[in-house]
Amino acid sequence: xxxxxxxxxxxxxxxxxxxxxxxxxxxxxxxxxxxxxxxxxxxxxxxxxxxxxxxxxxxxxxxxxxxxxxxxxxxxxxxxxxxxxxxxxxxxxxxxxxxxxxxxxxxxxxxxxxxxxxxxxxxxxxxxxxxxxxxxxxxxxxxxxxxxxxxxxxxxxxxxxxxxxxxxxxxxxxxxxxxxxxxxxxxxxxxxxxxxxxxxxxxxxxxxxxxxxxxxxxxxxxxxxxxxxxxxxxxxxxxxxxxxxxxxxxxxxxx
Length: 255
Fold this sequence. Notes:
The protein is mainly beta. It is built from two helices and 19 strands. The relative contact order is 0.16.
């Protein structure tokens, strides 16, 4: 009987942990040999929509050493502070959480780590995030704190929910592809106030068009699938253009 009670007590925690996704690495960034965090401040994080599941992977590559005014030091680890009180929960939009590999958010030097921002946003708005990183060096076999860095350039824009079923006046709006990141196929939804043809295109970060297709649009809600398997892993931009209106969003592909 005690075992049954113990199982019933632990069940909610088991289910909660089972819902935490694993983060994914951007292998293109890792293969480039660059160090730091990807996406960077220029690319930033993808937008979301209220009521639509959200996912943003972040790759962290800590170098082996660095040169300071005091000499060359080896990185021990970089620790993402989890006790931030202002803003609470890193400033994430309500409904979103953070998970990582390693789960302690202690990222070792000379290695690659990742985190994922996930969940279903509940409140629209532009959210500016704050991440505080404690940097530790190694000297004579001992680890010691060197500096604290505060990152404030990341942001997440959460769009209002689109009530298509009850909306009598449709506008042209392109939603974030789901799932994102993409492993093979992804679905892209958009709304249109008229029937017609829309032009869909995929661009790399250099602005080169690498794929395109024509999409038939009906008045109201529309959706179509895109097969990402011919493309390499990495960050891409996609656009949908119709009646001289064009909207762009970002897509992350991980094979």
